[in-house]
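Service request form, structural biology core

Requester: graduate student, group of Dr. S.
Request type: structure prediction, single chain
Budget code: on file
Notes: please return the result as structure tokens.

Sequence provided:
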Amino acid sequence: MRNWWLHWTQWMRSACTIRAFFLGLGLCSVLLGPALAHKSSDSYLTLKVSGDTVAAQWDIFLPDIQFAIGLDENSDDQISWGELQKKQLELQAWANSRLNVSRGGVCALQPTGLQVDEHTDGNYAVLYFDGKCPAAEGPFSIQYSLLFDIDTQHRGLLNLDLDGTKHSAVLGPQNASQQFTALASSGVQFLQYVTEGIWHIWIGFDHILFLLCLLLPAVLAQGSSKTNHAPDLKRVAMGVLGIVSAFTLAHSITLSLAALEILELPSRWVESAIAGSVIYVAAKNLSNSFEGRWQTAFLFGLIHGFGFASVLTALGLPTQSLALSLVGFNVGVELGQLVIVGTFLPLAFLVRKSKFYQVVVFRGGSWIALFVALGWFIELASQVSVFL
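Core staff response, request fulfilled:
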């Protein structure tokens, strides 16, 4: 009877643990799921407000416009300048209806031009607007709703110059309406950049995948070709601390250098190298090679730092509090990273001895990461869409 009870309690404990791990995987899938479908959608909105005048530049990804209102008349999967010009009035009206700015009342925006510009991920329509506001001073408000009705992952990267004070923000469905003042406190700006750093790591699927690939074997035996023995919690914690610290130090160095425009690399090279870093670590997992993981984290962390800096550069750093904003963004990235590690690692440690973890999570997860990163690499290298 006693043996039966022991078997029953062990089974129940194991079942609860596995259910908890599946819940953790579900949380991870919320973060990583969109990566299997497409790159996160961004637009770049630059506003210069001087008194009661507004000048706007809005860069919107051409495939996003095609998805929303249609541009490709002849269905050849190419958008020509002629096709874009034919839709110019409709495009300007559609974009204008998704952006409201106000200062003492609604500022009426009028379209003044249209161009095309190439970003690292493809061609963007560049829309220009000018406007007048009812008031020349006071708070400035923005309400942004581009693409939210068809893509909840879409974000607008705002760079605002309000009477000489620089502001930056990431506009999403949960914070589509924001208000700014010309004399923003340093504390407010710091918190803005912390929030943006957290959000960037959470939508940076390539960064998350790299980090998870490094962490997958952390709960397994190190320096052995066998993965059926697990270290104790202290060894796991020390190993993870070394990996995360090396990654943090490395990407903080290059993030700062790139954001301050001391050292820059072509974005396409950086993105390709980041995809390559995931391929490398996933392949190491599949070959049961667990040595030198903190060195790997540091080496590729230098590359990932340039990737973090690309968004920070797009947002812009306010000259009045440049160092504070840079630190705030980096703190946000680290906080977002800690949430990911803190969610995944305890659950992984609980089920580390099970075949489920060793076969399905560790090996299966490494195979998935390898193929996803390979798809990213092919897309970047050949500009051929792999994930439709």
